[in-house]
Amino acid sequence: MLRGLRWVTGWFALAGAVVALLVGVMTTVSVIGRAFFLSPIQGDVELTQLGIALSISLCLPWCQLKSANIIVDFFTQRAPVRVQRWLDAFGALMIAVMCALLSWRTAAGAIGVRESFEATMILDLPMWWAYASLAPGLALAAFIALIQAGLHATGRPISLLEGNAA
Q1: Residue 51 in contact with residue 23, Cβ under 8 Å?
Q2: Can you tell me the distance from the alpha carbon of 5 to that of 2, in angstroms, rounded to the nearest whole number?
Q3: pTM summary value
Q4: Which of 59, 60, 72, 76 has the highest CB neighbour number within 10 Å of its CB?
Q5: 138 phi, psi to nearest 5 deg
Q6: Which of 151, 135, 137 is nearest to 67 (CA)?
Q7: Which pLDDT tens digit goes with each residue over 6-60?
Q8: Are the beta carbons of 60 and 134 closer than 8 angstroms?
């Protein structure tokens, strides 16, 4: 199961990187078009907003899997290992709750926005696409954080999940 989880998060991160790269290329082309030809890409700001939001949500699970979030341990670095482990478990649990709530609310928002036929102003793209595309990455990040909370709480090495140890 852990190998499959690493595989899925890897593909999510790769997809997020591709989306970010495409947004960067589109922005460059739009800026050049605006500067030299007075013809930017229509809806470039809308596409940038949607693309970067999607990219971030797709990369979050990989970041969580690799324990790459910022940790401020100034006050706890001299605490006993057991205390640190429980604080890490609590932090991972809070991230899991936050990502799960965000996933749930973006999915619910997608349904609401779809029912109201809301669309972007310039390109008239259905807004529910943007909402719906965020939910899977957030849900996967929540699932990974939940597993990490369990690993921290039981004292098992977090590297089991990261793939650094078997």
Answers
A1: yes
A2: 5
A3: 0.88
A4: 60
A5: -65, -40
A6: 151
A7: 999 999 999 999 999 999 999 999 999 999 999 999 999 999 999 999 999 999 9
A8: no
Bridge partners (DSSP) listed for residue 94 = none
Q: Which residue has the tokens 């190998």?
A: 3
Secondary structure (DSSP) of the chain = -HHHHHHHHHHHHHHHHHHHHHHHHHHHHHHHHHHHHS-PPTTHHHHHHHHHHHHHHHHHHHHHHTT-S----TTTTTS-HHHHHHHHHHHHHHHHHHHHHHHHHHHHHHHHHHHTT-B-TTT--BHHHHHHHHHHHHHHHHHHHHHHHHHHHHT--THHHHTS--
- 60, 141 Cβ separation under 8 angstroms: yes
Gap between the Cα atoms of 30 and 130, Å rounded: 21
Contact assessment for residue 123 and residue 47, using Cβ atoms and an 8 Å cutoff: yes
